[in-house]
Every structure is written in C-alpha cells, then in structure tokens.
C-alpha cells in the first residue's frame, strides 16, 4: 500500500473516548470490552486473569497484536429493546463469491446475542472524522440509547444502519463459532453502500489516518 499512516492523538484520554475498560453495565456484561480499546487477547476471559500458555509470553504477543493496523468499524444489530452496537476493529473480507464478511465479537456481548438471535447485522466502516462516534460506541459509560442518539439510524433488512459512514453493509448471519474469548461471525452481504472519503484507522492503540489522497469510488 502506497499510502502512509499518520497517527493522530488518541481521544481515549483527550476527548472522553474510552480507556481499555468494560462496556457499560446497562448495555454489555461487565466483562465485555470493545475490540477498539485493546487487542482481543489483551483482556481476561470472564474477569479471570490470563493464564500462561505454551509459546511466547502474553506481553510479547500483545505487542505484536498492537502493531496490526485495521479500519475502525461499528457493528450493529437489533436487540429486544432496540438497536445495539459496538466499536470493532477485527473485521475483514472473507469471500467475494459468495460475498462474505468475517467479524470478531466478544463472548457474552449483547450485540453478539442479537446477531445470533436476529440473524442479521450491519457493519459500518467509519470515516477519519468519526473518532467521536467510534469512542461513543466503545465507551464504558454510554447506554445503547446514548450510542445511537443523533446518528440518523434507519432499518435495512431488519438491521439498524447509521447515516454518514464511509461504507456499510447489512449481512445475514451464516455461521458463529467460538474461539477463545471471542466468536467469529460470518455474514453474507445482502445490502451494501460505498461512499467517498477517507477511513478511520486503528494502530498501536491510537487512531490513525491516511496521509495521501484517496480516490473516491462511491457506489
């Protein structure tokens, strides 16, 4: 990739964005933690400390995971009492034919439960200027209602879709499998929109942005 990364200040400490902590008790169980805040294996399972495993030490592995650059996304689904959602950095394309996306969600999260129950969810790729939105959906102090406030949410194929994202897709849940303290969710893309702009990135526990121009390919 020719574009270079320009890391920007982490709003986790400068603008009220979330520190590495549990998601709000009113939205997610106490042990739920957003993927944006820390790499998946940096957090304990069900509140228990990480146990030693064969191979490199946890600290060395966490240092490796922190160097993985990723786009910042918000995953949403319809819950029993309204829309649910969380900030996620572990999202990737899986297949073009059929069109499949792979999303990694924390075990025990209400968002994951809604994805399994409703069999549909939306993935939003955020723009570089949407750091506040990313922080809100990862914040340990915001309720589900507060996360969605002012987002211009609409329903597409039964999933809540946020206005203003760089791109979004609505997926039908194909498969859910647990690995460690997370679940891999495979979704078949049923609706998609791609806008113009530049992506919000996450690297080394900080937000980042591309420094070179991006050719828009809206559609």
Task: Explain what this protein looks like in three dimensions.
The chain has 219 residues and is α+β, with helices and mostly antiparallel strands. 16% of the residues lie in helices and 35% in strands. It is built from five helices and 13 strands. A seven-stranded antiparallel β-sheet has the order 4-3-7-10-11-6-5. The protein has a four-stranded antiparallel β-sheet with strand order 1-13-12-2, with no helix packed on it. A hairpin with a 2-residue loop joins strand 8 and strand 9. The N terminus is likely disordered.
List the helices and strands and how they pair.
Elements: E1 5-7, H1 11-14, H2 58-66, E2 70-71, E3 73-79, E4 82-88, E5 91-95, E6 100-106, H3 110-118, E7 120-125, H4 131-138, H5 144-148, E8 154-156, E9 159-161, E10 167-179, E11 182-194, E12 201-203, E13 206-210
Antiparallel strand pairs: 1-13, 2-12, 3-4, 3-7, 5-6, 6-11, 7-10, 8-9, 10-11, 12-13
Salient structural properties:
219 residues; alpha+beta; 7-stranded antiparallel sheet; 4-stranded antiparallel sheet; 5 helices; 13 strands; globular; disordered N terminus
């Amino acid at each position: 990739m020719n574009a270079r990364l320009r890391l920007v200040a982490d709003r986790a400490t400068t603008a009220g964005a979330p520190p590495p902590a549990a998601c709000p008790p009113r939205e997610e169980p106490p042990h739920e933690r957003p993927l944006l805040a820390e790499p998946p294996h940096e957090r304990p399972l069900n509140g228990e400390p990480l146990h030693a495993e064969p191979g490199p030490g946890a600290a060395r592995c966490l240092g490796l995971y922190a160097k993985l650059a990723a786009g910042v996304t918000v995953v949403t689904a319809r819950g029993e009492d309204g829309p649910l959602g969380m900030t996620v950095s572990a999202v990737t394309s899986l297949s073009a034919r059929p069109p499949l996306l792979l999303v990694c969600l924390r075990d025990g999260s209400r968002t994951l439960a809604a994805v399994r129950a409703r069999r549909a969810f939306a993935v939003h790729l955020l723009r570089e200027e949407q750091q506040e939105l990313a922080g809100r959906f990862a914040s340990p102090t915001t309720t589900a209602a507060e996360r969605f406030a002012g987002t211009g949410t609409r329903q597409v194929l039964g999933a809540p879709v946020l206005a203003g994202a760089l791109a979004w897709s609505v997926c039908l849940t194909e498969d859910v499998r647990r690995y460690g303290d997370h679940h891999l969710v495979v979704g078949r893309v049923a609706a998609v929109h791609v806008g113009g702009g530049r992506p919000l990135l996450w690297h080394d526990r900080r937000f980042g942005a591309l420094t070179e121009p991006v050719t828009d390919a809206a559609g």
